[in-house]
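Sample intake sheet
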Amino acid sequence: MNKLRTALATAAAAAALGLAALATAPAQAAAQPAFLAASQMPPSSTPWTATQIFGGVPENGGVLCAPYKIPAQNTRYREFSTELDTNGVQVTTVARTEADAVKLVDTLRKSLAGCGPLLERQNPGLKAVSAAHGKLAVEEGAWVYSLDTADPQIGSTDIHLFSVGRDGRTVTLVRWGQMGDLEDAPLTAFRTTTKTAVNKLY
């Protein structure tokens, strides 16, 4: 009888461990990439605030310079803002395969590099200049771009910084923007923000 009780107890314990493993496996498989915190955006004269993390892509289909390039499936985003109209967004997507992630990075890089000429064609009178600012050594790499725009009719100038980076199958795009010119942009700090964003993914 004692042997039977021991056998039953052992079987029950094994079953419990099996159920526990099944319970934790989906949680591990469902682990989502982490996002930047508000404090990790480039320094500003007023504090950054961050929204919650939303599923899908922002309402404009992605971000300026790369609208509708990022698929909504397996994608999430967070928006950032300050009291001085400085704003930003991080969009992160998990591709089906690493090869798909590489293709998405290439697509986004081409869109960011060619954004200025495209905007000029779409908006007669607008002056828009895109520039590449090099590759960052983080995970599978990240690339930084800028977009400097001026609208003579309105008399406004805006500067945006973009980066796209990859860690395995996961691609993240970060945008920062405010009124001003490229010399007003925190390019060095944005590079740091980009490295942090890619490192935080997992």
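Comment: Confidence is low (pLDDT under 50) at residues 1-29. The first helix runs from residue 2 to 29.
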